[in-house]
Amino acid sequence: MEPNLKKKYFDQVVPAMMELFSYTNEMQVPRIQKIVLNQGLGAAVADKKLIEYAIEEMSTIAGQRAVATKSKKDISNFKLRKGMPIGVRVTLRGERMYEFFDRLLVSSLPRIRDFQGLKDGFDGRGNYTFGITEQIIFP
What we know:
Elements: H1 4-21, E1 35-40, H2 49-62, E2 67-70, E3 85-92, H3 94-108
């Protein structure tokens, strides 16, 4: 079953943007290529089970297996060595990306207490970033 957001994008948004910006080809319309979920775990240096728990939690949220990210260099102040797991990430593309984005917009973001909307987190290359402090908002 196709996610509602994907159907709405291709049925309504693409034709409207083609008309508004005088695009000649459907491929000129901006689109989402991927969603990357990233979680840094500073306490994972001391507790190794934290990474396993975070991988399980991130996999449940994303619907796809998460992988541990490893440190690139030694930092003695943090008792960190090169190659130690310090976080978790997962990259979503295609159907899973649209399903996650739909769940995020429809059910997760409205659960945030005193939600004022998302900030302008665009960089110069068309990427958008924002942070979520609690994973409880995900159903």
